[in-house]
Amino acid sequence: MGCWAAGSSLGHLKAQCRLCVCFTMLLLLTYLFYCLTGCCDLAPSLSSSLPPGDRPGLPRNLTASPDPAEGTDLSVLNSFGSKEFPQAIIIGVKKGGTRALLEFLRVHPDVRAVGAEPHFFDRFYEKGLEWYRNLMPRTLEGQITMEKTPSYFVTREAPGRVFAMSRHTKLIVVVRDPVTRAVSDYTQTLSKNPGLPSFQSLVFKNSTMGLIDTSWSAVRIGIYAKHLENWLRYFPLSRLLFVSGERLVTDPAGEMGRVQDFLGLKRVVTNKHFYFNQTKGFPCLKKPEGSSRPRCLGKSKGRAHPQIPSEVLLRLRDFYRPFNLKFYQMTGQDFGWE
Ligand SMILES: Nc1ncnc2c1ncn2[C@@H]1O[C@H](COP(=O)(O)OS(=O)(=O)O)[C@@H](OP(=O)(O)O)[C@H]1O
């Protein structure tokens, strides 16, 4: 009888143990499931009001705050990672080659970028930082969030606003010979408005005196030294990288090497990612992000420019020379615009 009682209580204990193990497994599996579906992100953030660059040592999936714009959208809950403020922004310049640079960077597995230009720091600042963060793609730990809006470089308020988001933001400026850039800018406007007056009638305030009209944005944008002064009030030079728009065409892998170093990324994007497309006249990607087929940039990039009288271009070149020299001095780089 005593023996039977001992055997029965041992059996009972075994059953309890099995139940215990099952319950623990169930708990673990539930936790795993929630983490994989991104629900762990919904835990209240420890420091979500701080931008990413300013959050000390937290795993990135712990830093995301609840996403009001997403509501209960299951497709979003199912995605991995979290939305972060950009740690690096291509701030300019318009027609410098900013799209090419962003598309080349997107090949890198550790770069995630918004495709469209957000224009947050110039046009939509009143929408607030959370609106901006929600535009960003989700990133995993170790990945960099990026965006490009070339008009930031010439927006007076932009440096202070970017600084207010994070003083650690890395800034990339793609610069191109200001004369060619002005013609490229004009070509773009002309494509939207074929009735536009000629380049020469817009570039001069007084053509007989040869006075350049600096109020015309196509001219003003190219005075790089002036705009850079504005950024240097907030950011040290070490936080900025100047990419040569010319070299981005002639040696894309070389420029990409510098950009990846600046961003603290492994040099993944190299020569083997590019081929020169003779028809386009530009380097193109063998395998752009999300595609296995070679692709060049669209028709609006690498357009033929209208013929501008050489004396007009010479006058414009004279106008830019002192500003270019100042810019070389400020950046410590000679871009070779003659
Ligand atoms: N790989 C490649 N393919 C095509 N185009 C290239 C490339 N690399 C640089 N570029 C030059 O980029 C110029 C357009 O500059 P952005 O992309 O900064 O223009 S924009 O401000 O976003 O409208 C564009 O100017 P245009 O030639 O005047 O069209 C190009 O010269």
From TrEMBL:
The keyword Transcription regulation does not apply. Keywords: Disulfide bond, Glycoprotein, Golgi apparatus, Membrane, Signal-anchor, Transferase, Transmembrane, Transmembrane helix. The active site is at 95 (for sulfotransferase activity). The keyword Disulfide bond applies. Disulfide bonds join 284-296. Pfam families: Sulfotransfer_1 (PF00685). It comes from the Eukaryota. Residues 86-321 form the Sulfotransferase domain. It is an enzyme of class 2 (transferase). This is Sulfotransferase.
